[in-house]
């Protein structure tokens, strides 16, 4: 109880510290924020030292540094937990849709509004608060804890696989814990057992060598923006299925049991529609929204750019058009294979009069784990203690590409316990994290350490 | 001959003056250049006074001012010519494709490189040089000349129609001369007898209320960028014909005589392909490129924007997608009618899950004139004198929306004598005007005044 009381007593300070971290615009996708990512790493290392981790290092990589913090004073035979998270954040654009500046955290209506609040700084920091509470109250933890917090998750963790391999001895653990996901509903603790993979592509269509006057040339020159539109329009059929040959070959279909478990969850299609604010939902025929998001692969356009997009009318026939296209993948699709079939298919759709280039920008494998073993059992009990009800097993539609690497490189099971909530706007304007979940999450993690004793 | 010698003697100074004007970034499409457009108008008025026009006014409108300059000292019975042009220019973007800054004119390889060089400052200024030469050498012109130079041509001349109506007495003339077009080939003087009209639209597709995480929601939410791509892809059929119901109803088909005249022009498809630098040309089936550009209506995408378009990969499911779409129109299409059928058709293509808004940004009617009468005959002789060969009658694919208004409001015939050249990059990076045509154009206009005596 002392640990829990410590956390409650220090809630305000904990939140202030998190806000300090959120003020650092550690955007990994933009090279001009290189210094900010370094600063965010150093900030975290400083806090790790302050709460009493024994060894804290900011380890340089070919990209942004990795922060490693260790506390290894648990009784012999106690398990070692590795806590993985990331301190980098998504770009905040479009800026004019934020109600408050993305890097000036605002606490309002029980939410912390800031880029990175829930994805993933808030969820990383609550683990450190759990450690701090144990060390402050008991001088020790019942388990060994190793933090591994990287700065390139939002760009596909290009350097972490190598890092894991190079530090495999130091990172040896009994389980990996990740909090970078959401709960199914407010107050309903959730363990995530599946994630979708990702193949993120850029399609570039080149028509004429330079922009042309659409009057002087229009009608005789193939318009690259129209060519791109035609290519994109052919990637789904009328049932919302993706038309790329071979795309579904390895898709593991949902079992009837899994579909029944999904149907039993507290979910209303209309609630999701209201949450996203679209006039209607839509997707692959024959599936509900939860199935579509958890267990069906997708193809989305993430960005489009061509010609003149400013104020007013410019009569230009553009030289080129670009689309960012990403596919969410499910077990047992392989993102390298999907990249290949995507590239082949898109190039086969290129009309005469333009050239089409396709580049794979980043990718990650889908993941699914049966929820069993000592860590899962302890996690279930800890969440039940903190939230007063048993957790549900869920999946997420998003990707944490590194989950696979942990399993493969460290040979340890991975458990995903998320403290985000639906509608939290991760990757979108007005990202927020529930203040309650920030605090209850710290309590759940503190309880988990005890359950693992 | 004295007039011609005067022009030759002063070539260097004339070019320097033009460059001074080109340095003013008089971009009408961007409100932040309001002061620059005013400055460009005042600069021209100053030059008109300096060469000896009798009355020069910079007349305020609801938008950018109109410059009016008059010389009315011709013998009784002499005709009055109205010279129309524009001092506003297109936006210079994309800036990184310019070999030299767009508003720092560079003379190189016989070309003046600058935004507005050929469209339309260079072509306006050569008329003033012709007037200057006559006044300097003879103290008088054989005809009355009225300049009318506006600052909103590139945004559809929203205020000029009203201006013409309000100043109809002052602007009364026997013919309107416009130099804002190109010659068919270098050294081949050309009179333009047809222009395409324009209907410029913006299509906005809204899906979810805000940008979403493409992992957390992808598959269950209709992607507005894909919806836009599907709409755009349905606007042409496999033969390159536009599918909008009613679109071709009023199109005047080419006569066999017109097709024969086009076939007789010195034109190679491969030359056009090389000029535009595309891997192949393409367009409506059954027509050659000159026919497609001169006499067939088009539908082009001028701009596309959705989601994340910066460096790297951002996994966003965008809230909205935008396309700028313009249609070039031919006699007897009516741009108001085309706007209506476009809006109706595009809205009818909106899939469930998104809302579609369509806005008409600007438009203008197509134009065609039989090349006959006193002014045309004099223009043919003057061009033959300046270039040593008879001019050809051509059309242009671009639009000068105000041409119709001149005919209707002033009741005067319009003659278009262009001194641009193919490949001049009007509306594109590295716009240029031929130095020779700037000087020969002034000679041709000076000769025209004599031919009209």
TrEMBL record, chains A, B:
Please list the GO terms describing molecular function: metal ion binding; peptidase activity
Q: Which residues form a coiled coil?
A: none
| Domain Peptidase M20 dimerisation per the UniProt entry, residue ranges | 193-353
Q: Which Pfam families match?
A: M20_dimer, Peptidase_M20
Tell me a GO biological process for this protein: proteolysis
Key words of the record: Hydrolase, Metal-binding, Protease
Query: Does 4Fe-4S appear among the keywords?
Result: no
Keyword Metal-binding listed? The answer is yes
InterPro entries of this UniProt entry? Bact_exopeptidase_dim_dom (IPR036264), Cyt/Met_Dipeptidase (IPR051458), Peptidase_M20 (IPR002933), Peptidase_M20_dimer (IPR011650)
**Superkingdom per UniProt:** Bacteria
Q: What is this protein called?
A: Acetylornithine deacetylase/Succinyl-diaminopimelate desuccinylase and related deacylases
